[in-house]
Amino acid sequence: MDAIARIKQLGMPRRNDELWTFFPVSKIPAPEFPDACACEEDFSDEKDFAALLPIASNARTMVQSIADNAEEIAMLKCNNDFGRTVLNIGKNAKASIEILDNKVLHPICAERFDVNVGEGADVEIFFANPANDLPLAFRHFRITQAAGSQVRFASIERGNGISRVSIDDFLNAPGAKFECRTLNMLGGTAESHHRLHIYHNAPEATSTQLSRNLLDGSSRASYDGSVIVGANCTKALSSQLVNTILLSGDSSVSVKPVLKIYHDDVECTHGNTVGELDAEQMFYLVSRGIPQETAKRMLMSSFAKETFYPLPDSVGKKRLLQVLA
After folding, report:
1. Which residues in 117-149 are b (16+ Cβ under 10 Å) and which e?
2. DSSP secondary-structure letter at 90?
3. Quick one: angle between helices 292-305 and 315-324, nearest 10?
4. How far apart are CA 120 and CA 90, in angstroms?
5. Do residues 24 and 220 touch, judged by C-beta distance below 8 A?
């Protein structure tokens, strides 16, 4: 089944769809599709509207390959409202990939990234785009990992519109590791929504999720993270933590952790905290002569930077911390 047929079969996202529980689906404009799908791939198993949208819109597929044992630094940017990129990362390769915003002319944009990571490869994918006025933006990542591969995904979102980042990560061989660190710094009526499905399909695979939110005005954030551990996946390690600071009474966050575990020799955890800036820390700083607004900015900066401090030194980490400087 091609992408157009599949997306028509699924229909528009609805609030009772578990993939779109927290998203304002009424704000998605009804798309117009071409008469025929240029891509002949079978998408009969795809369930996410956002993953199908670029392909059903006949976005031109850009294929990039990184050779075995190579080291590359790359920046990716779509030139149109809809884009698809296929990345093939070779065995033992090292890659740093920054994703830049495209120029959007219409009320919606959608990008899809298919990332195939070879054995022993080390890959970082990140974006920290400047605050923008994109009205509605989707980014979908489908990542498959071979034995001993490592993928680190990191992002900072500060836009003024509505964004949704969805990730399907498949840990398909022993020793594969996936780490996701996201930071939302939102104000006004901005919204940021994250949806992750992490599939532990092999023994001794590891996944880590950390999401942090600084929400002001009437902004909203949501985090829908699922970890699925297969029946034969012994010694799986997985953790998920969401930390949110609400800077106003009208801001809000929604969190839905999901664990589906079909094996008993695993270690899987999840946690969620929501609160205001620490009153004791504020009092400590102000009592030492620091103006209240300066103290507030110091605490917010520390909270934000701690999201990325545990990452190994890299191009991506340097870029993310520069944005927060």
Report:
1. bbbbbbbbbbbbbeeeebbbbbbbbbbbbbbbb
2. P
3. 170
4. 9
5. no
The distance of Cα 15 from the centroid of its chain, to the nearest Å, equals 20
The pair of three-digit structure tokens given for residue 145, joined into one six-digit string: 């990992």
Both tokens assigned to 76: 């990716």
Of 302, 24, 325, 308, nearest to 163 (Cα)?
A: 24
CB-based burial of residue 196 (10 Å sphere; 0-12 exposed, 13-18 middle, 19+ buried)? buried
> Going residue by residue through the chain (325 aa), what tens digit of pLDDT does each one get?
999 999 999 999 998 899 999 999 999 998 889 999 999 999 999 999 999 999 999 999 999 999 999 999 999 988 788 999 999 999 999 999 999 987 666 788 899 999 999 999 999 999 997 666 678 999 999 999 999 999 999 999 987 889 999 999 999 999 999 999 999 999 999 999 999 999 999 999 999 999 999 999 999 999 999 999 999 899 999 999 999 999 999 999 999 999 999 988 889 999 999 999 888 898 889 988 899 999 999 999 999 999 999 999 999 999 999 999 8
Going by the DSSP 8-state scheme, the letter that residue 123 receives in this structure is: E
Up-side HSE of residue 254: CA atoms within 13 Å toward CB? 14
| Alpha-carbon span 297 to 12, nearest angstrom | 41
Asked if residue 188 lies in contact with residue 219, where contact means CB atoms within 8 angstroms, the answer is yes
Token duo for residue 184: 């939302």
Question: CA-to-CA distance for 7 and 172, rounded, in angstroms?
Answer: 27
Return the H-helix or E-strand segment holding 304. helix 292-305
Task: Check: CB of residue 198 under 8 Å from CB of residue 228.
Answer: yes
Q: 15 is written with which tokens? A: 């609030």
Q: Which two tokens stand for residue 172?
A: 């398909």
Order the strands of the 94-100 sheet from edge to edge: 71-77, 94-100, 122-127, 150-157, 177-186, 206-215, 236-246, 266-275
